[in-house]
Amino acid sequence: MRRPPSSFLLLTFFGALLGGWMTFGGLYLRLFNQTSPIQSLIGSWLRILSTSSNLLSSWIEVQDLAWPLLAIGLAWSGALSALWQRLRWGYLVTAFLGVLSLLTLGPGTLLALLVLICLRMPATQRWLNSVEETDDTQMGTSSIYR
Length: 146
Fold this sequence. Notes:
This protein is an all-alpha fold. It has one domain (6-129). It is built from eight helices and no strands. Helix 1 (6-32) packs antiparallel against helix 6 (107-120) and helix 4 runs antiparallel to helix 5. The chain starts with 5 loop residues before the first helix and ends in an 8-residue tail after the last helix. 24% of the residues are buried.
């Protein structure tokens, strides 16, 4: 098996960090009904909502943002696992999660931007598109799991 390029390793690191950060923030928000001390994304959105209109701030509460944060944060592990297995849908899900994570405001936006940059790097693209020869393909049979 060929070693993945450094851009792909950085993508994995930034994606795992972003997913863990979002999962921690959603879990902390769900359990304690407040943003964690290291989280700025919920506070930023609530400040924007409260200044934009009183109707929106009364309609959306802090607790409403916990489940989307948990779901997106945990989805990062599945997307990164699919990328490591070179599954076609893994690229699309990672790109979608990266764009969705741009909305987090704060450090999450920077991490999501770095993930999207690493995902589009030519070395990452070449590694994801390369197909390794397995014992089955060398013997003339093909695997049904490809």
